[in-house]
Amino acid sequence: MHVLICGGGVIGASIAFFLSRRGVKATVIERTGLACAASGKSGGFLARDWCDGSPLAPLARRSFALHADLAERIADDWCYRRLDPMAGLPGSPVTATLTSSAGYRTR
What is the CA radius of gyration of the chain? Predict the structure, then answer.
């Protein structure tokens, strides 16, 4: 089987990657250049828990884990780095402690 993928953004590249892992030959065609539109301009920020409590929560958590997995599988350095962000307001008495799962709890 040979699959033709129209669009060289993050979705097209992901489809090609996963098809190739299953032994399927894929060709990506793009009108202008790979990752030159929205996919190439994105900051790439992905948060694991932004969708908690919604129907999208399982998808968000799976996507978060998949990025870390891809970083280990892909040989090239594609600049993936995991950050453990914390947010707060200046002067707020609330402090946060990071947990081992990279979430946070307030105390």
Answer: 18
Q: How many residues does the chain have?
A: 107
CB 42 within 8 A of CB 20: no
Contact 66, 59 (CB under 8 A): no
Q: What are the 10-residue block averages of pLDDT along the chain, 107 residues in total?
A: 93 91 95 80 72 90 85 75 73 56 46
Q: Are strands 96-98 and 104-106 parallel, antiparallel or unpaired?
A: antiparallel
| Contact assessment for residue 61 and residue 55, using Cβ atoms and an 8 Å cutoff | no
pTM exceeds 0.70: no
Identity at 58, one-letter amino acid code: P
Return d(Cα 18, Cα 105) in angstroms, integer.
36
